[in-house]
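Please predict the structure of the following assembly.
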Amino acid sequence: MTFLNAILLAGAAAFLIPLIIHLLNKRKVITMRWGAMHLLHEVIRQRKRKMKIEQLLLLITRIAIPIVLALCLARPVLTALQSLGLGSSSLIVMLDDSFSMRAPAAQTTLPGGTVMEQARQDMQTMLTDLPKGSSAQVILSGGSPRKLLDQATTALDLVPKKLSDVPSMSGPLSANDAFQSATSALKDAPNAAREVLIVSDFQEADWKAIADGAALPALENLAKQEPKPQITFYRVGSDLAENLSIASADISALVATESQPVGLRVRIKNHGKRPWQDVAVHLEADGARLRTARVSLAPEGEAVLSFTHAFDKVGDHSISVRLEGDSFADDNAFHSIVQVRNQLNVLLIEGNPGKDPLSGATDFLDIALTPHTTAAATLKDLIRTKKIDARKLREEDLRQQEVIILADVQRLQDRAMKDIDKMVKDGVGLLIFAGPECDLDWYNREFYRKGEGLYPSAIKGYARADSDATPARILMQRFTHPAALYFNDARGGRLQDAEFRHWFEFTTQGDKVQRIFNLDRNVPLMVEKKHGRGRVIAAATTANAEWSNLPLQPFFVPLMQRLTTYLATEGSAPAWQLVGTPIRLNIAKDLLNAEYTLRDPTGQTQKLTPRKEGENILLESPPIAQPGIFQLTRTGSDKPTFHAFNVDGTESNLKALSTADIQKIATRHEASFANNLQSYQKLDRTRRHGSELWQPLLIALLALLFFEVLLQQRIAKG
Amino acid sequence: MATLSDILQAEDITSLQHLQLFARTVVEGFTTGHHASPHKGFSVEFRQHRPYVQGDEIRRLDWKIFGRTDRFYIREFDEETNLRATIVLDASGSMNYRGQKGVLKFDYARKLAASLAYLLMSQQDAVGLVTFDSKVRDIIPCRTKISHLHLMLEAMVRATPGKDTSLAPVIESLAQRLKRRGLVILISDFFDDPAALLQSIGVLRKKGHEVIALQLWDRDEIDFPFGNWARFENLENDDDFLLLDPATIRQRYLEVQKKFAEQLKDGFRKHQVDYLSLPTDESHSAALRSYLALRMR
């Protein structure tokens, strides 16, 4: 047993007071010459023994009262009960492991450490304070929520050990998803008493909408669980207010040819309140610094810098932009991979070759993919196209092609379709445009084949916007497809300018199908499906101007080039990935038994081996935990592939919700809020009254007082 | 030679001169007084006529009625007699209690006895005195002479309380000694076994005596007001004592005391004995006045 206010135990000495009074009373006896002794004898006769016991009881009660009062004030905690497992609970910690948790911790709490380290240290104390028999589970809530442990554990010291491996490099916290995971984890909690602890820096970017009143249905659902869990918001904060970051970077081409300049547009953001002058921004290629630019940033302002660089050699190259002068360095760099090739062979198969200029189904495409060649410029095009009539397609036309584009093709011969199917499965990209010549019946029956075929979606039919109706336009939203990222910035082109009057109405899209662009009629314009090692993209419109003015838009050239290069590079790594995701590569079947070495930016290496997944051979790394350039080399090969990883730019704004706002969220959801470890421990103690003994002692004290009054009355009555 | 003023103060004597003591029941006697007798005789107070029965004295026949009706009727009269009052004064150890108000119970009893004696004698009644503790100590027979009062007062002054009480045998022996019926006034705290006491009272009543029981209580004995721990030593027995916290038994004591008083009261009522409980902090005259008021009802 321990005491929270042990000094007040001294008050127990007050038991001497009634004892002394009792003894003094006995000493102060007076002698009385008495006549009515027979009456006294009558009183005493029945009660003599009883009276002694009652007197003794009264004395004991009076002595016990100050002792129990002192014990009560000293707030004893019965640790013996804890060791028996009574009062044990199940703790689910929703730990924000997003990148912002790597910011320096507040100087007052953990000098020199990060917010995550502080969270880990505080959690260790919290776990130590849990009664014996309690269990714990941690939901890592940054990016996609996931459990730290396969199942809740009662070996609480295991949790901090496991947490030390968490790099805190995940993307923004999705509160609703995290609460859903917590609810699911709660169902497996072994103890009836359950607590959910949300440990976060409460970055404004993640929580502001919730503080402003946005619904959090998963938390509401969590709060309704029976037995009702105790929910606590626990804030671990940073003092750091100033931060510079590379908010985003766009690369003009995913694949380039030798000596073709590749443009890199970098947006640098000042998240702090102070202006920055002449911040050095370096461009690095293949690890070597090429040049430095300087930029000045207003408070909470941003600046855009553009770099260009041409690579001489064919192969994978890394390109990085890095800025200097910021204490929170992890978000100060952007890395990307650029593939440099001699040429990229694209086969254009048209179903309706036009006789007039630009009337053919692939005429606009041809120009867009080879603009320099078409313009007879001196610059070299990466893409080399070969145009052919679908009806005259021969087997040898398909050889050496890296991307095949079908435009307004009525149908394919069985032989040709089988060949293309095999090529796509081996990694060749396929882009299919719609058109009036298309035989929808064949497309659905043979080409789509209930999802088994090459075509990504079934076609319900033709859709059209009447001449007097507003034409359909591309729905402007944040694009997530790698080929479309470039167009998130308005400088990439105004996609909404394209007008569509006819289109295929795609119907079924399974999990394997990803939408790239949508029309504002809530129908997809482009969908993508993975097929073997390759990918197929279907467009609901024509590649010429027959159904839309898409080919007439300035962005048509970069869009087609990006789609094509994306399809061509599908077998290789993406230009860059977010930290927290793994490297996943589909490799050739004969490499199943090969061994790979992954080298991280610090030079550490680890071995990877491919595995079979369905028909494919997959090489997958663990989730990558740091930004930078990773190098993957097959044993026996001297040609490594490069993989770039960056942190999520939204995590760079370290501004946190105010205490009042966090309190507001907590209050709205009947949860508690603790701003530091002391206030959490106080809160925890208050909750665990069951383990503290002051309540039963207080009841005992009241009972003693009541008993004393009763006993005295009883004795007085005789 | 003891005088009345040795016992009574002047104001007491003055106040008592106006009191009249009337016996409620008739006591046998021959001298003229205010006490009605149940015996029929040649007296002045006509009571009733009744038919003659064999054995009646011829001289009590009413000849006038015989002359008018040719039937024999007897004339009956109420006769007034002298009162023979014996004051029985308890001089046992328990009467030696001096309460917190400073009044000695025996002093109070002595004054009360003297008052009664004076009043009775002033009515030309015959008064006698018996003092006792465990047995009878002094007996002064009933006389009407005023000089007799001094004898009684001397006996009262001479008496000192000391031994333990043994009331029942004393009363029984008294019943044997008092040859003529009369009034017996018992002045005591009656701290004795109630059953034995009442039995002896019954004997006294059977002998035709009217009995008046005046029970004396010190205020301490009624209220039991003690707070501190105390050693209670028996006034009648030095070896008997109790060490206790009075506050803790007060309630119970009061119940026992009340029960004891009730038991006596009920017993006396049963034997048609007038009973009065007299706290010693009341004045003698007030006590007697309330008693006489009770008697005159």
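Chain A has a mean pLDDT of 85. The first helix of chain A runs from residue 16 to 27.
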